[in-house]
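Notebook entry, structure prediction.
Reason for the run: the old model in the group folder had no record of what sequence produced it. Starting over properly, with the input documented here first.
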Amino acid sequence: MHEVARVLKVEKRMLEVKTFSGGSDSTCSSCALNTVCGSKKIHVTNPKGYDIKIGDMVEIDIPERVSVSALSGLLYGIPVIIILAVSMMLRYGLGLGDYLSLGISGGIVGFYYWFLNGYSKRNSARFSPSVVKKISKVIMQ
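New structure, fully documented this time:
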């Protein structure tokens, strides 16, 4: 999906932009994250290093690969399963105490979140909105 946006803030290769969504032809209505977004101000990457200043108009690409259900499962479902499975295995399989089992399973979930954070940073270009081009003239209706 492509959107036109005005640049509000510039920080190296990250921009804060305000989209002009809300009309019937807006791509926000078809976006999977429409119900949880709640804001028309978003952060986008500038991977090609365009010379962009505050107030410039840009065209951004918002990836459609994002599924709210999959993200919820990754962030909440899998850690709950890990905590339950590991703590039960340690408690009843190896006979460790409750607190020790829960502590070890919490540590494993911490490692899981650390790994997930690293993965999302390495692959942020696939999942984050990014600037496609700088627009020199915009005709607003």
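Summary: The chain has two domains: 2-66+124-135, 68-122.
The old model has been moved to the deprecated folder.
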